[in-house]
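> forwarded from #structure-qc
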């Protein structure tokens, strides 16, 4: 009997050094057993020739939502298609937000059960914290449930969170969440918007009218995001806490965070493909409604520059699986958000690497290595190296991908990038050495496992360093 389960042969492999190296990958028991010179003799149960292709670590989408109401996944229908979308796009791990006022210790078993039964990829969780009980339970959420990253909606005041059945809150609660998270080695993921400014500006934007996306941006302009970003960054600096500022959309907010990061190394920044590639002039109407809004072309370019310079840490999709019918309304009543998990990796490679010359290693860092490191998954996830899970995606840099909502696996049934042609194609996706997607077909519809974690943010980086030097 062969001691090697799978040999992936002859590809240009992205190694942790950032170098693309022609090599063979040997897999045993779901993990990389060896990275060897191409052509090294091997007795393997299965051999896959990927000559002429690039082999990258499986992508990690650190920001997705599941469920028909985007709060909690409860059924096969709410898990299967969205995670099939993931592996079709080269994503092998997702971190999904659970958003509820209920005790998470009550929700957690059912969510993990349905996801382990129907998920095509591995998964971890973030919890949205909004009640005193949830705040008190942070140690148990970390130690017993394996969730050390917590979302907080800074804009949920005055009943703004009622559409998700989430309570209103205040800066005092945020302060305490940051303080306790810092003590426990966890991280807070703030949604940075000042809703009081939105209340003041929304009616003015409605009165002025104008194109849908221009009006939506006017109702929630960059100062709304930037002021809240500066405020939570100041709190984090004062409390020595880690924050992961999700879906940063504007130069003003980016600058606010960077100004505080000069004095505090616990500030991490995420953006999304839509803020890099779409703006208020994109002409996609309410399909492009999202919070924070799509901004200006100048904001897009500022984000690209920050991404290339290493200022932005992670790119996540902020995937929202609501059906397209929820978007087919006026800009003020259409739902916010859109699907993006299936196009996360291919958009970044095509538009960032192929067209803008951003090194492929930087793309891998943004969607694989850094999310694994910040969310306590490294070195199990995020790199092709001996001992890591054999998660990998085989891509054709000479291939083409046409984005059509009707062809994608998400139940949303649309994409804001309808009709785009990308200069890359995902050919195969492996999850722990098991083929999950191949040549346009999802071939393993289940098999995902829950990934408990112990630390996030600076604590995760410190734990990684301690493990490397022990």
């Amino acid at each position: 009997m062969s001691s090697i389960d799978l040999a992936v042969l002859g590809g240009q492999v992205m190694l942790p050094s950032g170098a693309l190296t022609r090599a063979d990958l040997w897999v045993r028991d779901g993990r990389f057993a060896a990275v060897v010179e191409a052509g090294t003799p091997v007795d393997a149960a299965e051999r896959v020739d990927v000559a002429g292709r690039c082999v990258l670590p499986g992508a990690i989408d650190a920001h997705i939502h599941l469920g028909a109401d985007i709060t909690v996944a409860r059924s096969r229908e709410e898990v299967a298609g969205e995670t099939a979308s993931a592996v079709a796009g080269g994503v092998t791990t997702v971190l999904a937000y659970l958003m509820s006022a209920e005790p998470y210790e009550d929700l957690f078993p059912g969510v993990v059960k349905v996801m382990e039964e129907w998920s095509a990829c591995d998964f971890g969780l973030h919890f949205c914290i909004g009640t005193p009980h949830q705040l008190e339970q942070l140690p148990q959420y970390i130690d017993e449930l394996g969730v050390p990253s917590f979302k907080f909606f800074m804009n949920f005041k005055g009943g703004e969170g009622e559409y998700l059945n989430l309570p209103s809150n205040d800066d005092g609660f945020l302060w305490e969440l940051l303080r306790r998270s810092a003590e426990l080695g966890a991280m807070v993921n703030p949604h940075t918007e000042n809703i009081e400014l939105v209340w003041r500006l929304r009616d003015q934007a409605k009165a002025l009218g104008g194109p849908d996306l221009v009006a939506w941006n006017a109702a929630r302009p960059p100062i709304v995001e930037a002021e809240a970003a500066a405020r939570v960054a100041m709190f984090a600096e004062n409390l020595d806490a880690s924050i992961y500022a999700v879906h940063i959309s504007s130069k003003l907010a980016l600058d606010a965070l960077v100004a505080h990061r000069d004095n505090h190394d616990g500030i991490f920044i995420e953006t999304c493909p839509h803020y890099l590639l779409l703006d208020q002039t994109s002409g996609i109407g309410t399909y492009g409604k999202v919070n924070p809004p799509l901004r200006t072309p100048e904001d897009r370019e500022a984000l690209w520059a920050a991404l290339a310079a290493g200022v932005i840490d992670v790119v996540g999709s902020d995937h929202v699986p609501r059906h397209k019918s929820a978007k087919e309304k006026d800009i003020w009543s259409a739902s916010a958000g859109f699907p993006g998990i299936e196009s996360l990796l291919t958009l970044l490679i095509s538009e960032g690497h192929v067209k803008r010359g951003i090194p492929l290693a930087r793309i891998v860092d943004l969607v694989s290595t850094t999310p694994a490191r910040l969310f306590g998954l490294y070195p199990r996830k995020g790199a092709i190296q001996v001992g890591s899970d054999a998660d990998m995606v085989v891509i054709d840099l000479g291939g083409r991908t046409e984005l059509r909502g009707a062809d994608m696996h998400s139940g949303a049934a649309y994409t804001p990038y309808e009709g785009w042609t990308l200069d890359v194609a995902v050919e195969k996706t492996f999850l722990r050495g098991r083929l999950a997607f191949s040549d346009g077909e999802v071939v393993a519809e289940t098999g995902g496992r829950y990934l408990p974690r112990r630390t996030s943010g600076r604590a995760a980086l410190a734990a990684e360093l301690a493990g490397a030097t022990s």
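QC bot note: The mean pLDDT is 97. The radius of gyration is 21 Å.
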